[in-house]
Protein: Guanylate kinase 1
Amino acid sequence: MGEAPAFLVDDLQNEPLNGFELKNGTCKTTTTVGDKTYVIDGADDGTLSIEVQIFDRSHGKWVHPTVHGVKPLSCKGHSAVLLKDRILILKKGSKPDDQIWFLEFDTQYVRQLQNNLGTEVVVWSKGVTGNAEKPIVISGPSGVGKGTLISMLMKEFPSMFGFSVSHTTRAPRNMEKDGVHYHFTEKSLMEKEIKDGKFLEFASVHGNLYGTSVEAVEVVADAGKRCILDIDVQGARSVRASSLEAIFIFICPPSMEDLEKRLRGRGTETEEQVLKRLRNAEAEIEQGKSSKIFDFILYNDNLEECYEKLKKLLGLDDFVTASPKSAPREIILPMNHSLSKIDDKIIINCMSSELEKESKNLIMLDVSSLKGGAPGRTRGLDFQAVSSFSDGLTGMDQFS
Ligand SMILES: Nc1ncnc2c1ncn2[C@@H]1O[C@H](COP(=O)(O)OP(=O)(O)OP(=O)(O)O)[C@@H](O)[C@H]1O
Ligand SMILES: Nc1nc2c(ncn2[C@@H]2O[C@H](COP(=O)(O)O)[C@@H](O)[C@H]2O)c(=O)[nH]1
Structure:
């Protein structure tokens, strides 16, 4: 997005109305919060994604924010509504799973990034209807059996869980496949991608770089599955500090001797690596047990018993069949709509066509139960449709 033209700056100095598409055919909306006006440019003019600039009205200056999260693709137009700490973007003429986005500018996650980076930060997240189950973060020392437990879970409930495929700079083991067990990558490339904001978390573990990309979590959510992350304690701490709401489980070995036996028994590490992993394990176990990161600690002594406990805490112990949940009904927002906001309800006034202005449909978007999901997802949207406004309010349809 290039520098904005002078007429736009004049408009912005005069405190533009929130959420309105500017009348110069540029697909830009402006949303003002205090001294800052967020100019969101969705133009479908060759730029691939919706871009953001901030106009600082107190200094009369443009600010180019650091943008995290996957950006929404550009579209034929959009509407913007200011919520407390984020801007709701409704893309016009987009597919149902691509029409609701949030630009976070003052969430806890954004403030944390701003502190770390010392720059203005905004974060994109995609709006998801309903209350999808929280992702599961599983941590524990190397060799404790995290991967074994996760494999058991995914084998028994294939349609329910999806694995977050991490990036790593370590070399693949014999049976490991790129893109399945890990995305094997190079240090310089991964460092660049971390700088570009592609990672939800990353850490140096046992001498190599590991990280969870935003995309790795999104792919699982897009498939309608509950995401499982197998990450070390540092990674779990970063995810805990982000606004991705997850369940955190720490897997503990019965003893250091058992851990050593398992690690050696697996036969995948050199002697030097085994010793390094065992040294690191002591600190990890101490942190896992004492820190406030984890919601549950499970001892993996007998594998079957530990697996049953894991299923129990995930509410799967008396699960008969892993039937997929019914998918939310889809709503397509028409190109031609107007918006109003009453408390936590966004009223989308849809006009089916220019000729049928009188037969309006109302869609109500309830944002009262938005849950953290950044970067990547903001869950908890709830749609209600009123089928025919012209006929009076004829009953509500739930769409979440
Ligand atoms: N309860 C158990 N009792 C005995 N052996 C076990 C138990 N759980 C797992 N194992 C074995 O321990 C070895 C290590 O398990 P696994 O690879 O799942 O560990 P991990 O925690 O995923 O390790 P890493 O963090 O290095 O990926 C495997 O050979 C596995 O079969
Ligand atoms: N912080 C992160 N830690 C990760 C990630 N993926 C894996 N891991 C952890 O690394 C160690 C070693 O794994 P290994 O496959 O080399 O044995 C283990 O504790 C994993 O949990 C990640 O994306 N981020």
Notes: Residues 271-290 form the longest helix (20 residues). The CA atoms of residues 88 and 102 lie 5 Å apart.
